[in-house]
Amino acid sequence: MGIKSALPKYELYCYTAVLGLALTWAASWIIEASDENVGRKVFKSSVKPGWSYFGRKMDVADFEWVMWFTTFRNHILFALSGHVIFAKICSMISPKDRGMMYMVYGLFAILISMGWSFITLILAHCIMLYSVALVKRKWICFVAGLCSLATIKMEPYGSWQAGFVTGSFELQDILFYGGCGFSIMRCMSFALENCEKKDGNYTFVELLKYNFYLPFFYFGPVMTFDQFHFQANNPNLTRKDREMWDITIKALVHLGAILMVDVFFHFLYILTIPADMKLVKQLSDCSLAGLAYSNLVYDWVKAAVMFGVINTVARLDHLDPPQPPKCITMLYVFAETYFDRGINDWLCKYVYDYIGKDHDGIFRELVATICTFIITTLWLGPCELVYIWSFFNCFGLNFELWVAKLCSLPPFSTIEGLLSEAMSRRIRSVFNALNFWQIILYNILALNSLDFAKLVAKRLVVKGFPLSTLAVLFVTYCGVQLVKERERQQALQEEQEAVEKPKIE
User: Fold this and answer.
1) Separation in Å, CA 54 to CA 38, 83, 259
2) By CB atoms within 10 Å of each CB, which of 84, 118, 295, 439 scores lowest?
3) What is the C-alpha to C-alpha distance for residues 192 and 138, in angstroms, rounded to an integer?
4) Three-state secondary-structure class, residue 48
């Protein structure tokens, strides 16, 4: 059945009311747990003084968020603001050479922040992978790139290379591993695109311009070389209608999201509570489900804001970078579940889509997902938790295909053909709700801990069955229906625009 199948408006209003009440209830439970347990021993290390004039403390358990928007906020703003001003001047003076100017500024900023030894290490990886790229054999480029990545992500090789970086400051490890990891992924993209180049090779300077673009260097996102090369060397710097207005609006949205998260961190200690297993065990089943869901939503907001800030700078440079990830609330299939769209695009282009082709064959899809998650595991850093996360997400992606194949066969396809479009949408949404909680459970492994994920699964699937399980699934079902309605409206709007476009032309 198509995505355009509609439901009665009163039914959608009921779903909206149920979801709104459930989220309000869950938030009130988490606020109550935060207020009543703020003095616990576990909280003291990650709940620090915040709004003293309101008597509120702040959850500072996430180092990345605190780093970006508190501790090193001024340093990051200074570096990115300097890049924007420098890039604008260069674009006005010599649009053709702006890629080279971006590289010069990036090298200077990296030199100031990390020193000569770090730049020398990055150049060593670049030279090695550029040399391999000249061979023009994809499998050799992959092997060399993955071996290079393994030297950063696996011990003792990572610590050995980190020892070359002199100095010691709080942000050093984050910048070292981020800069090295993303540099290697970019170099692999360069090497693989060079294999596709039919006549000649890209120059080493093109690799340096691609790799040392400052906004992407430390924290991503990864933009594949073919896209960056085309956009950074495009001398036409005219903007689309209302493009600057769109950039401004999105920048204001990101600012609003930062303020919203700051408010939430003073009332909902969603990152600290899961670390206190004694407290977590005292929570009700539904509040535990709300806590797990809120952790996934927060991680999406963090990724959306961090990549959104970088993307705003990149768009001012006339680039079209990978967009922030799709909101976790909008997800009910594993194929769209990711928090870094740049890495996702990289994996899809060079591994998942390359092996899986049209993703219709069961065996080919299995091989494609296994290869994709092997590289993802290496990217995240091999450890027990990452192995478990990769296994379950790989299984979830394949399980979706197996179920879709099964439901396309009689008698299931025959039964669905007899149903109305609205009823088919309702039945599919039930299965989507189950899938949504698979996504939640599999991904809180990476965000929290194995113990927390096991407790949530046990309480919702075993101890809470049937009342808590059905209550949570019904609320999720309501949410899925609202997401499907939004997708339906978007599909109708796109169809209308496609019809009107030829008339205008």
Assistant:
1) 15, 38, 16
2) 84
3) 6
4) strand
Specify the higher pLDDT residue, 239 or 52. 239
Q: Which two tokens stand for residue 448?
A: 């929290």
Residue 2 pLDDT exceeds 70: no
**CA distance linking residue 22 with residue 205, whole number of Å:** 55
Q: Give the Cα separation of 377 and 359 in Å (integer).
A: 21
Residues 6 or more apart whose CB falls under 8 angstroms from that of 184 comprise 125, 129, 145, 148, 149, 152
Over 90: is that where the pLDDT of 207 sits?
yes
Give SS3 for 481. helix
DSSP helix, strand, coil percent of the chain (3-state; round to 5) = 75, 0, 20
Full-model pTM = 0.90
SS3 479: helix
Could you give the 3-state DSSP secondary structure of residue 359?
coil
pLDDT at residue 20, as a whole number? 94
CA 356 – CA 348 distance, rounded (Å): 9
Residue 505 confidence (pLDDT) above 60 = no
Torsion angle of C-alpha atoms 362, 363, 367, 368, degrees rounded to 10: -40
Query: Which residue has 């971006």 as its token pair?
Result: 102
- Choice between 100 and 335, residue whose per-residue pLDDT is larger: 100
Q: Which residues of 125-164 are buried (b: 16+ CB within 10 A; e: fewer)?
A: bbebbbebbeeeeeeebbebbbebbeebbeeeebeebbee
Task: Scan for tokens 């080919």, then name that residue.
Answer: 364
* 254 close to 112: Cβ distance less than 8 angstroms: no
Helices (H), 37-137: 63-66, 73-93, 98-114, 116-133
